[in-house]
Structures are given as C-alpha cells and as structure tokens.
C-alpha cells in the first residue's frame, strides 16, 4: 500500500502528472485509485471520462474518483468554522488567510482528504494517487492537529466544563452566541479525524511529488514549498519538471525563439537538480497536444518514469525530525531543505517550540526530556536546523 501526493503551483500539470502516474502504475499491474481533492473537476477531463463520488473503473485495475466533500460536510464545518478561525490565527496564519482557509473551498479540500484516509484505510488499493489542490495550503492546514492538541486536551475540557456550569445563565444574557455542546463534539471529532489524516499522510508509505515547470517564478515557489513541506513533516521523494521544451534536432533545428526557451529551461533545471540532489527530478516534454485520455497519459507516464516503478517504495529519506543526545544535553534537528538563515525563526513558548520559515509556522510539542531544558543555541546548515538544549539546573533540581 502506497500513497503518492502531487502538489505544485496552479497549472503546472499536477492533474496530468497524477493521472499519468496512476495510469502507468495500473498498466503495470497495481490496483490503483487516483482521486482529486481539487474542487475543479479536471481529473475527469484529463481522462476524458465521467468520474463519480465513488471509485469508478477507468480501465483494468485503474479507478478514479472525484471527491464531493461539500455536501457531506457543509453542516459540520459551519459549526467549527468560527472556532477554527481563532486557532488558525494562533498558529500564525494571518486573519485574512485564516478567513480564506475556513470558507468552503479550502475546507472542502481538507475534508476531501478525510476521504483519502477512508480509501487508504479500506485496504482495496495497492496505490492511491492524490491530485492535490495548489501548493501547500492544505498540507499546512493538516499540520494543525499538532497546534490543536493543546486546545483540545487542555483548554477545551476546562472551557466545556465552565460553559456547562454557566450556560443557563449565559444563554439568558448572551443568547445563541454561546457555543452549543455540539460544537465541542464537532471540534473534537474533527481534531481526531484530522489527526488521522495527518498520520496517513506522514506515514512512511506516503510521499509527496512536487510538480513544477522550468520557469524562474515557478521554481522559486517550488523551492519554498520544498522547505515548508519538510517543516510540516511531509516527505518529498521526487520532483516532476513538466512541459520541458524539446531541443531541436538536426532535421528540425530550433529557431531563435525555441532555442531561447530551451536554454532558459535547461538553466532552471540545472539549478533545481543541484538544489534537490539526491532527490530525483523526473522530466516530461512539452507535448504537441494536451495529454488527454488514457493512452496519452500512459505514454506520458512512460516518459516520466521509464523502466522505474512509479509506486516504488521511497528510499528511506533523511529523518525529518530527530533527537540526539550529546555530552551537554540534546540536539533537536529539523530538516529544512533550501531554507535561508534570515527566514528561519525560533521561539520557545512553555512546552512548545515554534519554528517559523517565512510565513510558515510549526508548533512542536517538546518531548518530555526537553521540557526541562533551556535552548542554548541553534544553527542552520546543509538544510538542517539544529537546536541545542541543555538541562536547566533550576528545573532539574526541583523535586
Ligand atoms: N507535458 C505536457 N504537454 C502539453 N500539455 C500539457 C502537459 N502537461 C499538462 N498539459 C496541459 O496543461 C494544462 C494544465 O495541466 P493540469 O494537469 O490541469 O495542471 P494543474 O493540475 O497543475 O492545474 C492542461 O490543459 C494539460 O492538458
Ligand atoms: Mg489540476
């Protein structure tokens, strides 16, 4: 059982790459489900078929589905929307973005990921390929259960008890603004389910493939995404460079316009390859027509993977988060590929460590050994943030 997530900037070819990967894997005998969590229903368009909200057979061993999260979850979501807004803000998402994330399009995608979890858990598939909505936001939202933990475990029960006691009084004064018990239940359920989804998507059998086109703007965003995926604990096992202009041949030499593009793209690809080494960078050429339909997609898959198995187990990657004991204390190391020193921030807040990279923020609950330590320094080198901890004499001495 293997799960592959495809993400990247809008329009680079996520849907095409997901569909091509699934088509190729199925043609080589893996029972494959490809599903899209993007509300734009382009997966069906790519295959040139209709896809329903249940797995629909496209070909032998190849199934597709278009998750229709809206209907099922709208009600629950409304209940928790307001609450989530507050939590998002605490997790460092600015108010405007939080607003955007909790309106249905963003929410829909998260809830669609619940369906991914259901399909993975069903045991029906050898491979589940997920065509995700554009870059990062969803994955970032899925990092929230960690931030939510504290609320759900500590603040929530207390709040709930307090509210229960004062509700009769409050409802007279404040009317329906007091959250009903149902809201707490809905939040707890959502928290549990998001935690489940996150475990599925960060499992060793799951990996992310980042799709890009070899253009400076797209590559710049892909670099940032690579960093933030690692920050949130998602493992990337490869990149796909799509729509690469084929160089001219002796029979059909490139004109200046084409030669210009070929050279510019080659320079971008060299840069990416160097940056992401040893991750593989797969490439697919700019086709003379849109790769639509099973045949064209399988052919594109073959171009991408050659003889390699599209659903092969990812090589065990460098640990994303590790704790080592040193002579003075501990080092907590967090993989942050391509991060620049000036973009990385670190704050300790009680038993939590808040790591920020640009506008991305992860709240890490400290393991118990580190709770009684002080942070004595941090270094960023070769894509790893190493945070040094030493025992806090005051805390260790305490009975
Ligand atoms: N290698 C390619 N050659 C030619 N057209 C492509 C290629 N890859 C994707 N396309 C076309 O580009 C458009 C965007 O691709 P799509 O997979 O829908 O992107 P995304 O899902 O990232 O938004 C589609 O019309 C698709 O058919
Ligand atoms: Mg798409």
Taking strands numbered 1, 2, ... along the chain, how are they ordered across the largest sheet?
3-4-2-5-1-6-7-8
Coarse morphology = globular
Q: Could you spell the SSE succession in H and E letters?
A: EHEHEEHHHEHHHEHEHEHEEEEEHEEH
Associated small molecules: adenosine-5'-diphosphate, magnesium ion
Structural class: alpha/beta
| N-C termini distance | 48 Å
Q: How much β-strand is present in the residues?
A: 15-25%
What does this structure look like?
With 399 residues, the chain is α/β, with parallel strands linked by helices. It has two domains: 265 residues, P-loop containing nucleotide triphosphate hydrolases (Rossmann fold, 3-Layer(aba) Sandwich), CATH 3.40.50; 77 residues, Immunoglobulin-like. The chain has 13 helices and 15 strands. The strands form three sheets. It has an eight-stranded mixed beta sheet, sandwiched between helices. A hairpin with a 4-residue loop joins β9 and β10. 38% of the residues are buried. It binds adenosine-5'-diphosphate and magnesium ion.
How is this structure best summarized?
The protein has 399 residues and is of the alpha/beta class. Helices cover 46% and strands 23% of the residues.
């Amino acid at each position: 059982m293997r799960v592959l997530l495809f993400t990247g900037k809008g329009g680079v070819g996520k849907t095409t790459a997901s569909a091509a990967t699934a088509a190729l894997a199925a043609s080589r005998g893996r029972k494959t489900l490809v599903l899209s969590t993007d509300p734009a229903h382009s997966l069906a368009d790519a295959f040139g078929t209709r896809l329903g909200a249940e797995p629909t057979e496209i070909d032998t061993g190849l199934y597709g589905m278009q998750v229709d999260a809206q209907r099922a979850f709208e009600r629950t979501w409304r209940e928790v929307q307001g609450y989530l807004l507050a939590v998002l803000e605490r997790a460092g998402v600015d108010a405007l973005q939080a607003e955007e994330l909790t309106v249905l399009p963003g929410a829909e995608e998260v809830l669609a990921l619940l369906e991914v979890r259901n399909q993975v858990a069903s045991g029906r598939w050898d491979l589940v390929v997920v065509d995700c909505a554009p870059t990062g936001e969803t994955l970032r939202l899925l990092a929230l259960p960690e931030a939510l933990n504290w609320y759900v475990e500590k603040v929530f029960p207390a709040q709930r008890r307090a509210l229960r006691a004062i509700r009769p009084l409050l409802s007279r004064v404040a009317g329906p603004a007091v959250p009903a018990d149902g809201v707490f239940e809905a939040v707890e359920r959502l928290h549990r389910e998001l935690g489940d989804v996150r475990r599925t998507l960060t499992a060793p059998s799951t990996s992310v493939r980042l799709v890009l086109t070899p253009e400076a703007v797209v590559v710049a965003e892909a670099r940032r995404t690579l960093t933030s995926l690692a920050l949130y604990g998602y493992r990337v096992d490869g990149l796909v460079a799509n729509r690469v202009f084929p160089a001219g041949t002796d029979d059909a030499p490139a004109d200046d316009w084409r030669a210009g593009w070929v050279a510019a793209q080659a320079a971008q690809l060299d840069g990416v390859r160097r940056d992401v080494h040893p991750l593989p960078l797969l490439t697919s050429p700019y086709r003379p027509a849109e790769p639509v339909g099973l045949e064209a997609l399988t052919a594109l898959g073959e171009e991408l993977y050659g003889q390699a198995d599209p659903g092969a187990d990812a090589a065990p990657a460098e640990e994303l988060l590790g704790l080592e004991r040193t002579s003075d204390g501990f080092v907590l190391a967090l993989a942050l590929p391509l991060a620049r020193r000036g973009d990385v921030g670190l704050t300790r807040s009680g038993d939590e460590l808040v790591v920020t990279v640009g506008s991305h923020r992860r709240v890490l609950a400290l393991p118990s050994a580190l709770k009684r330590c002080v942070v004595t320094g941090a270094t960023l080198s070769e894509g790893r943030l190493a945070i040094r901890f030493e025992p806090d004499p005051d805390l260790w001495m305490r009975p």
